[in-house]
Amino acid sequence: MVVIKNKILIFLKNIIKKEKIIVGFLLFIILAFSLFLRIYLPWDNIFSEPIKYTADDGVYHMRIIENLLLGGYFPKWIYFDAYTNFPYGTYIHFAPLYDWLLALIIWIISLGKPTLEIINQIAPFYPAVLGTLAILVVYFIGKELWNRWAGLLSAFLFSLLPTFLFRSLLGQNDHHQAEVLFSNLAILFLILAFKKGKNLYYKKQFWIYTILAGIGLGLYFLLWTGALLFLFIIFMTIILYYLIEFFNKRDQHWVLIMGTIIFLITLGIISPFFGHPDLFHSPLYNINHLASLLLGILGFLATFIIGKFIRQKKLDNWYLPILLIFLGLFILFLLSIFSSETFLGIIDSFRAINLGFMSQHGELAWRNYARELVSEMHPMGIEGAIQYYNYLFYLSFIGMGFVVYNFFKKRMPKDLLLIIWFLIIFLICGIITTSFGQVRFSYYLSVNIALLCGFLGVKTLSFGIRNFKKCWQDRSIYFHNFKFLASFLLIFNIVFFIFYPFPFNLVYSFPNNLPAIILNAINIAIYGTVSPDSDIYETLLWLKENTPNPSVNYYSHYEEPNFNPKTEKIESYSYPDSDYGILASWSIGHMITYYAHRIPNANPFQQGLGKVVENEIIPGETTFFIENSEEQAIEILNELRTKYIITEYNGAVSFGSGGFFGTQLWAMEEEGDYYLEEQKEDQNLIFTTRKYDKSMIVRLHFFDGREWFLEDKGEEESRVEALDHFRLVYESKTPVDYGFFGDPEKDNIKLMKVFEYIKGARIIGNTSIGANVEISTDIITNQGRKFIYKKKVVAEDGKFEFIVPYSTFGKDGWVENGTKFEIFANSYRLIIDGVERQIINVSEEDILEGNLIIISN
Prior knowledge:
By secondary structure, this protein is an alpha+beta fold.
């Protein structure tokens, strides 16, 4: 027995000696598994034709990267983009480093000769690699805060947490995983600087790590303009730590010097990017960033000077925080008087955390409903936190309890940093209160939860193992021994709550016998990158190949408009008269830019949405789609210079925040009177309303611009008139619902449709007074669907007039630089008092130019 015991002890000692090798090997396994999750499992969802980059911002990042590499301007950055928000264009608010770094990698690999094929072979891997590097940095943070094993467990947990995993999957080319990587780098070097700063022996290392922290924070600023968040975290940590030490008669001036150096380096790194179009109106780096960094530096210097003055005069310690508060309020007061734009900009920077975006001119838009209508702007709430993190959410608070205890016991600045870091991120995720914060910031919270749970897990395991060792040495290995039983229960509980429901699920078959955290990660990796319906990509490809090319070059560097002080707006881009906009749901605006190489009126930056303000209509996507009057809708299109309209079934349905209800909420910021009747039938809500039925999106997507009558209603009340100036030119393949006309199953509704706004040909003629006149044509769509477009009038004065939107010569009627429409109309039939009188053919020129066609008797 003694021999066995000695051998076990020797084995354990050898393991401890080889700790670095073991930890290094396990870390390699974690990183390899991270890449497997992020690359192999989502592979089929991404690598198809075309490459399925994540919708919204990820797609727009790829637009910028292509512009950098294929326009012949690399490494010159594009600050203004004319290929979105038509007819105004927009200054880009994306920070440059994310795209520039990927462009540099592709440029090097391609030996300076990048092609679209090479870009698509490399770019999808970018977020997965950055995400894995972020996991590596989390390991080093855990190691520097506690030890290698805490860092290892933290890295493992972080690699699996869903909110960060989703942001770092193959093809998820948004900048969020890079935000985490570079903010963590800044935090890592800050922790190292904190550790070296209290010991003069490590003075050289202190300066090195301080400079590296400044560089890390500066690079983080170059990745995300909202990096003021971590600027605030660092500032609060340094000031609070200095104040706490000041009250304990320890003047830690080195920490103020450190903060000043970090902020100065950051300011120097971002300074070359100021001024587009100027310091005050740039959506990139502007007066808010400059003022925040300068005020931070001023705060450090003021704290140093005031603290030194109080020490010399032997005043009460409380004078320092009181004077700092008064000084801060006084500076804000001066800014509000002499530089109100700077003052409001700083205030809006914090308010924007709640909304997630600011307009180009600093005015927050759609305050009431943006967080309700955009999923990533929703507050997380307690239920959401539990759903995302399971028991790790609770364990993180226990871990934080130990951190708080350690700080009060040892007053180490790294512990204070972790406390403030966790509390601020916790707050901006909208967990404490649902009136503030957004779930989108949960990828930051994943770092904190992984670190705290990694620390708690290792601390618990080490405590239990030490007790086991004591029991072994004391020959007290009995279940009635309190230490042994307590240690066993402690270890079992920490393992169970981290790897829930393991080990109780071992009776199930693979993969259901895996811990929930691993099984959830696998599911997210497989299904998290599922792209939008293929109909969307096919529709955008059709648009690219069958509509006129804009005169503006897709790969140009566009002339930057200036800020106009008279109008207090950034001037619009000067587009050639031949260029036009594509009006569609703002959610696919970037996809229109990237996949169709066309210019959307609205985009996911919430630009071009339109709005109704005190009965004044601001033209945009939402105001067009909810409009009842075709004449007013045309005025919107004319002001936006729109030629094509893309409609989606999900945007036309009457229910759900993403449907028509959400559209009119965006436009009006209130629930309008579009839904007048509501009845329950077969457990489904059926909405019947005159304003909803007559909205442009319903008339286009559900009725194809045809005349329609609502059942069981009087004709005058229920009639929805046919549209004069819109023709269906393409529809996607997937049927999603029955239609509203004679044969609903055959005349069904497709997922996507494209309409062209045209003048329409005018057909006029004479007949007997009071005659009933009808004109109609048979339409065959590109999907083989057949329907009849017809219009009726009463010739009260013996004259009739129709405006018709379809030409009748098929492909032979195509014109140069026109639409290569795939939906064809037969000749029009003119019927008077039930008798067919004439067959009429209409050319494409008649449709486009609004020509007059006179019908003779």
